[in-house]
Write a structure and sequence with these properties.
With 446 residues, this protein is mostly beta strands. It contains no helices and 24 strands. The strands form 4 sheets. The protein has a 17-stranded antiparallel beta sheet, with no helix packed on it. It starts with 5 loop residues before the first strand and ends with a strand. It is a multi-pass membrane protein.
């Protein structure tokens, strides 16, 4: 069943008719459907010419198809119980071919050991998208009666896009005594073309960019390793905006300073501060389902993680993150200075798993943990133009695994205590988070 949208009144906000049940279906039985099909084939080739030279080539051909039919909530009438609805059908396909060619060289210059990576990669992506949008009948969310006919919806988007991108890159990792320094650069050329089948218009653009990265770390004898890094990224895309112009590539840059501490092979502690800025990033408008290009967003924060193994059998992972993320530039002035949507300020987790070794229970693993997701802000605004707050939540997870030779069996439960909570909010709607979910897995190691 697709994710359900509910009015804010009855989820995040009070409703005189009471809370809306999180299992209430807002679509039409027999109509709402979601299907995703993925296929891929490829290979990884490596040839070691000698101890200093290695050749690699990785190729992947893939296809993704997504068919989505849904009737969803668009508003709430004055009686606080009748929702208005719309119909949205989307049929999309992505065909892609990606190739990466690498030459790795290792060399010694004085006391410095170099690992040089030279590469050329290319990707060719074809994207097809057809979307229908129209009205649907109203529904009493507290006492629903289904079966109303679903009217035909007009085709409002029919696009075929193509992206070709070629990049060359060079990286040198240098080790001198306890120092490790990494320097790299990349140059990309990209061409995108989008055909609007509804108008017959074609929009195209060509872009090129140089991006770099650099980092350095020092390994102390006591296990501490402070580090610093800087990196840039360039991400072209297909598609056009409401004016029919092609989207600009997304760019980003990030600074990071941190320290790692590894006193032994069973323990690793990391602490890092980061500052990430993204420009021209794409988001999906929850009302129109159209892609929109935003201005600039900045995220700064602190990340901590500790991993250790106790008593040779108990694996423990603890983590915490603090993120201060806000929209720093936007076409809509109301959004500037507001928190970046769906980015919790605080997150924390604690996970432990005991692996039995020897005896009748050899191969059995029992795991349990707790996750805290702090408050976040949805893509909606209150009367005073402040972003809408989504409350925090604490969830419990568990797992049982069993290894039998080359076979691994697993049973994983998320939100074990079946907590009801609101996960997102946008416009006049909200969605509940996933209730208790149990999945099984079987893996065979060759």
């Amino acid at each position: 069943q697709p994710s359900q949208r509910y009015p804010l009144q009855g989820t995040l906000e009070p409703n005189p008719n009471g809370p809306i049940p999180d299992n209430r279906f807002t679509g039409e039985p027999g109509y709402d459907a979601y299907e995703r099909r993925e296929s891929a084939i490829g290979y990884e080739f490596e040839h070691r010419i000698n101890d200093q030279i290695v050749l690699r080539q990785n190729v992947r051909d893939y296809r993704n198809d997504v068919d989505d039919q849904t009737i969803y909530t668009t508003g709430l009438l004055a009686d606080q119980r009748t929702i208005t609805r719309s119909r949205f059908d989307s049929f999309g396909r992505i065909d892609g071919l990606a190739m990466d060619n690498q030459l790795q060289l290792t060399a010694q210059t004085g006391s410095a050991k170099h690992t040089v990576l030279v590469g050329l990669d290319h990707q060719d992506i074809d994207v097809s998208s057809r979307q229908f949008f129209g009205a649907a009948s109203n529904l009493d969310i507290y006492d629903p009666v289904y079966g109303a006919p679903v009217p035909d919806a007009p085709l409002f988007k029919d696009e075929d896009g193509q992206l070709k991108q070629t990049g060359i890159y060079l990286q040198d990792q240098i080790r001198v005594d306890r120092w490790t320094v990494s320097l790299g650069g990349r140059y990309d050329v990209a061409r995108s073309e989008t055909l609007n089948n509804l108008t017959g218009a074609t929009a195209s653009r060509e872009d090129d960019a140089f991006t770099g990265r650099a980092g350095a770390s020092y390994q102390f004898a006591n296990g501490f390793a402070p580090y610093v890094s800087y990196m840039e990224s360039f991400l072209p895309t297909t598609g056009i905006n409401a004016a029919g112009n092609p989207f600009e590539p997304e760019t980003a840059h990030q600074y990071e300073v941190g320290v790692k501490y590894q006193p032994n092979t069973d323990t690793l502690v990391t602490l890092a501060w980061f500052d990430l800025t993204r420009e021209d990033y794409l988001t999906t408008n929850p009302s129109t389902f159209a892609n929109e290009q935003k201005g600039e967003a900045n995220s700064q924060g602190l990340e901590m993680e500790a991993r250790t193994r106790l008593f040779h059998a108990l694996d423990v992972i603890a983590s915490y993150s603090y993120t201060d993320a806000e929209i720093t530039s936007a076409s809509n002035p109301v959004e500037e200075g507001e928190p970046l949507e769906y980015t919790p300020e605080h997150e924390a987790a604690l996970w432990g798993k005991y692996n039995f070794r020897g005896g009748m229970l050899h191969g059995l693993g029992l795991g349990a943990g707790v996750r805290y997701i702090g408050k976040s802000f949805g893509a909606a605004f209150n009367a005073d133009n402040s972003a809408l707050e989504v409350p925090d939540v604490t969830l419990v997870d568990a797992a049982i695994t069993y290894d039998i030779g080359q076979v691994s069996l697993g049973l994983h439960a998320q939100n074990l205590l079946d907590e009801q909570y609101v996960a997102t909010a946008f416009d006049s709607s909200g969605t509940y988070g996933t209730r208790r979910e149990v999945t099984g897995s079987v893996a065979y190691r060759f």
